[in-house]
Design brief:
The chain has about 140 residues and is mostly helical. The chain is built from 5 helices and 2 strands; from the N terminus they run H-E-E-H-H-H-H. Helix 1 runs antiparallel to helix 2.
Length: about 140
Amino acid sequence: VLLCLCRLVLFLFSVPCYIIVLTLATSRKMSSTMKVQQKDEEGEFLQMAALQQNMRTLSHCRIFAGVMAGCIAGLLKIEGLLGVAVFIVVTLIHSTMIAAKMGFEITRHFPKSRDLFVSQFGGGPLSFILFWTLSFDMVHIF
């Protein structure tokens, strides 16, 4: 059962990773008439619309990671602070999978490399709590 659950999680995580890379790839092809902002000291230019799209897609991925972490914690009957640890671990694994899908060239899509791991981190806890209690109640109480 645990092996099937792991395979399901890996499959479901690969879908948003594919979506974010597709979005990031199409954002590179945007026209040159967009607003452009220069990084502080490096002299590189950033397209603001592409960065906003990347952050929006990352926010959707964080919510999805919260849903998956909630289902995992609820199905495995994890309670207390260990459940929150499951959320953090699943979110960090998901961020690592997104970074791997981008070829670990994070600064090409985000202003700083840490933005992939810490930005929009607060987007998933409410979804996590909802699905954690829902799956826990459906499986272990009812």
